[in-house]
TrEMBL record:
UniProt feature coiled coil, ranges: none
Residues of the Activator of Hsp90 ATPase homologue 1/2-like C-terminal domain: 15-136
Transmembrane parts of this sequence: none
Protein name as annotated: Polyketide cyclase
Family: Belongs to the AHA1 family.
The species this protein was found in: Chitinophaga oryziterrae
Length: 139
């Protein structure tokens, strides 16, 4: 397979890493933030957070016009530090969590796909990450 472009998005959340980790990994929370805009939602999420464990989140337009499943298999899980996985299309993702106690920085690096522009992919993943930050800080 050809080398893929790595794209990185990041945010800092005003919350301790334990809360950030919980909101990132628990299906009840995942369903509340895993979408890029308000006209989308995540009606289904399942997460077996361990090496070799699988996850799946359904992302759907609220008007019912389109939906897709985002899923993969975990390759590395280090509690409160790192989550790595391979998506169903064989691309890899690494998410790093670092905290100073009051705030947690989340840095997500993923391999680009070949359909959409790098800018569009970065924008979409950043929008989801920003939605995660807003959800976590508000709850």
């Amino acid at each position: 397979m050809a080398n893929r472009t790595a794209i990185t998005v990041e945010t800092t959340i005003q919350a301790p890493v334990e809360k950030v980790w919980k909101y990132w990994t628990e299906p009840a929370h995942i369903q509340n933030w895993t979408f890029a805009s308000d006209d989308w939602h995540a009606p289904y999420a399942d997460n077996d957070l361990k090496e070799g464990g699988k996850f799946k989140t359904t992302m759907a337009a609220k008007d019912g016009s389109f939906s897709f499943d985002f899923g993969g298999v975990y390759t590395n899980v280090g509690e409160y530090k790192v989550i790595e996985y391979t998506m169903d299309d064989s691309r890899t993702v690494k998410v790093n969590f670092s905290s100073d106690g009051n705030a947690t920085k989340v840095v997500e690096t993923f391999e680009a796909e070949d359909t959409n522009s790098i800018e569009m992919q970065r924008g979409g993943w950043q929008a989801i990450l920003d939605n995660f930050r807003k959800y976590t800080e508000a709850n």
